Amino acid sequence: MTKTIYWLKGLDCPNCAQKIALKVNDLEIVDYADVDFIQKKLIVKHKQSNIKSIEESVKAIVKKYEPEVEVLDYSKKHEHKHHHESEHCHCHGHEHGHEHGHNEAENHTFDIVRFILAGILFAVSKALPYELPCKILALCAYLIAGYDVVISALRNILHGEAFDETLLMFIATVGAVALGYYDEAAAVMLFFQVGELLQDIAVERSRKSISKLMELKPEFARIIKDGREEKVSPESVDIGDVIIVKAGERLPLDGVVISGESQIDTSAITGEFLPVNAHEGSTVSSGCTNLEGVIKVKVTCKFKDSAVARIMDMVENASEKKADTEKFITRFARVYTPVVVACAVLLAFVPCLFLGFSQFTKWLYRGLLFLVISCPCALVISIPLGFFAGIGGASKKGILVKGARSIEALAKCSIVAMDKTGTLTKGSFCIEKIVPDGITRDQLLEYAAFAESGSNHPIAISIIKEYAKDIPSGTVDDVKEISGHGISCNYKNKKIICGKSELLEENGIKVLPCESENTTVHVAYDGKYCGYITLGDEIKQTSKEAVSQLSKQGVETVMLTGDRKITAASVAQKLGIKEYHAGLLPENKVEKIEELIRTHGGAPVAFAGDGINDAPVIARADIGIAMGGLGSDIAIEAADLVLMNDDVLSIPKAISISRKTMRIVKENIVFALGVKFAVMLLGALGIAGMWMAVFADVGVALIAILNSMRCSKT
To answer: How many CB atoms sit inside 10 A of residue 51's CB?
Structure first.
């Protein structure tokens, strides 16, 4: 299965976006298609061999519904960022901008001028005492304000397209003219077009606000080649190359500082505004800004694997994981408009069957009101925009959310399970006690360090750091890491076993009793017990506050750890965690998560962890949360949320953002449908006029869009 993404340059009509998606979905060679209206992209999943045929079919479909929209390769979108694109499709009454290639500001200026002119003509028509000149001026105002709507509607009729917003507005206003309401037709068209213009501006501003997330990508990298400094694209830099980053510049790639000293602003990645010191040996991430001085950085990964590329990929692809609410609105919109149109027809004719056709004009007018109200734009635009804004707001706090589905699930979350080491604690152990048995202290530390040299676990790193001597490569062989238990290897042709007491006892080695609440590593060499090392793992400063905030949100915290029960109990007590489970292997953690899912009433269960051993349980949880800064790539890949600042305090923040987003989304649904149904009822009773009907369409859409943008304010 292949995924191809197209950029629909110039797309600015949510109804047209839905139609395009439906028609592309109907193609036999397509398995799945969807349009992300907010980012103007069409996602198509299909077989590899159909790429050329897919592109031709997509272009034909888009040309039918949106002649002015260009179909381009989405991966090349950023190449166009310095060019102004024509943002208004014919469905929203701004066709002039496409035909003449004006930029966005010129389009708006032209529209504003013609709407002012139409408004003046309408005002004069109301002031004149003579009926015929009034009708002529009102008709002129109507055509100046809505000529593009009329053209678009006629074109849609020729294409056999029903239930289009412009077609419905055309029928309603022409019907008003036919009934003799010239001034009302002109006023309604003018109000409709002004509302559409304001809606376009609001959507475009929200797009620009959200698209700032995508500006993390550096435009160039300064690379040293043959002793000379050269500007190249970040994609062309290889691992091991040395780049120069000057003050005020954004780091283009991940790497290690090999020369220079500076302070780095990591807020774009972590959401934290405190600068971080960078010196020789420091690891730095792409997307961060060098605040002072010049540093040389040795690149450690290709651009596609860098932090900034990972963030851009997560944000851009977030829209593909739609929430159930979004899916419901999409299905609802397909049914809603045809049903309302059918109701409009019935309202125009059925009463006349009982009351007589002498009242046909009155009931036809009421039926026309239904046509104006019927467009579901308020829902089709505002709901995805709300989710996207929520995802954008979270990213500003260093929280990467992979899709609207995760936002929706997190808002309902009632329990968060967390790993201990590296999540609730710093994961940077320090040696507290070395207790040898039958050998010297230095020998015990040597055996442990050589055994752990084959591991990147925080415990191993701490022991090797304490040993503080070089460990030549090839000194140990046959290294076997037993996940959750320890490690074994051959050293000087004899076996070292290093890890939990259970591991040594399984190999027939009796260990000394140790009652320490801290992590204990027992060591055996050549089948003989050599002693143990205890290590303390400092609790993160924000862990207790995070647990407290989760409790206030009604979310229970459960700790799952592979550490000993005595250690787990101590950490749980200090943090105020009531439920904890210790001595768990990775598969045991998965079992515990499944148990929590079964016993917590169907509410989503989240798990937060880092490291390779947490990847299975992160993937199994309803909401997987990975510690992004220190976490392993495999854990990040499996997660639904990534905390770039490695701070568990981001978890209650993420839940708060998710709940706010869902609250705003639901507000928009209730408000939009409530106003529309209320105006429909008032229209059917003859209380509401055409003005109120237009407000129920474009006015409600505009308010819902502005409300959705609150999701990005965190």
So the answer is: 14
Query: Closest Cα to residue 458, out of 484, 421, 420?
Result: 421
By C-alpha distance, which of 296, 211, 209, 281 is closest to 251? 296
Strands (DSSP E) contained in 305-407 are 399-401
CA dihedral 135, 139, 141, 142 (to 10 degrees): 140
Which of 201, 15, 181 lies closest to 109 in space, CA to CA? 201
Question: Which band of pLDDT confidence, cut at 50, 70 and 90, is reported for residue 209?
Answer: low
Q: Which residues have C-beta within 8 Å of that of residue 556, sequence separation ≥ 6?
A: 414, 415, 416, 550, 578, 579
What separation in angstroms does the CA of 399 have from each of 417, 459, 620? 18, 27, 20
Total Cβ atoms within 10 A of residue 518: 19
Q: Are 391 and 404 in contact (CB under 8 A)?
A: yes
Side chain identity at 602, as an amino acid letter? G
Amino acid, res. 322: K
493 phi, psi to nearest 5 deg: 65, 15
Sign of CA dihedral 561, 564, 565, 571: negative
Closest CA to 652 of 566, 698, 714, 569: 714
Paired with 608 in beta bridges are 418, 625
The 3-state DSSP class for residue 2 equals strand
- Number of neighbouring beta carbons within 10 Å of residue 580: 21
Question: First-to-last CA distance in the chain?
Answer: 38
Tally Cβ neighbours within 10 Å of residue 640: 24
Share of the chain above pLDDT 70, in %: 85
- Is there a catalytic annotation at residue 419? yes
CA within 13 Å, CB half, 41: 18
Angle at 587 between CA 586 and CA 589, to 5 degrees: 65
> Could you give the CA distance from residue 198 to residue 509 in angstroms, rounded to a whole number?
77
What span, in angstroms and rounded, lies between the C-alpha atoms of 635 and 220?
Answer: 30
Least confidently predicted of 416-420, 573-577, 709-713: 709-713
Tell me 697's DSSP state.
I
- Secondary structure letter of residue 510 according to DSSP: -
Best CA proximity match to 151, nearest among 44, 68, 246? 68
**Neighbouring-strand partners of residue 298:** 242, 256
Q: Choose from 180-184, 457-461, 573-577 the range with maximum mean pLDDT.
A: 573-577
Of 605, 593, 599, 621, which is closest to residue 555 (Cα–Cα)? 605
Three-state secondary-structure class, residue 592: helix
Active-site residue identified among 12, 148, 164, 419: 419
Q: Quick check: 265 and 291 in contact, CB under 8 A?
A: yes
Q: How far apart are CA 351 and CA 354, in angstroms?
A: 5
**Strand ranges across the sheet with 262-265:** 276-278, 262-265, 289-290
pTM of the prediction? 0.68
